[in-house]
């Protein structure tokens, strides 16, 4: 797999985390070790993206509720 293809997969796994899960599931059934490694890395990118989005949502909620209660 070329570096450009890996970069595209990692980019879309980070932006749209379900894509990372799909790539990981597909890589589970593939015999190619290189593709399995790409799938595992895509899963890591997806998990990181998911955690960042959850953290951003919680911070947004906390900051919004704190500013509206002060008025």
Automatic annotation (TrEMBL):
Q: Which UniProt key words apply to this protein? A: Membrane, Transmembrane, Transmembrane helix
- Transmembrane feature ranges: 7-29, 41-64
Q: What is the protein name stated in its UniProt record?
A: Group-specific protein
Its ancestry begins with: Bacteria, Bacillati, Bacillota, Bacilli, Bacillales
């Amino acid at each position: 797999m070329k570096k450009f293809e890996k970069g595209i997969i990692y980019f879309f796994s980070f932006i749209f985390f379900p894509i990372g899960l799909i790539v990981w599931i597909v890589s589970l059934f593939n015999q190619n070790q290189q593709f399995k490694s790409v799938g595992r890395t895509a899963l890591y990118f997806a998990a990181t993206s998911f955690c960042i989005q959850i953290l951003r949502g919680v911070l947004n909620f906390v900051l919004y509720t704190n500013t509206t209660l002060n008025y």
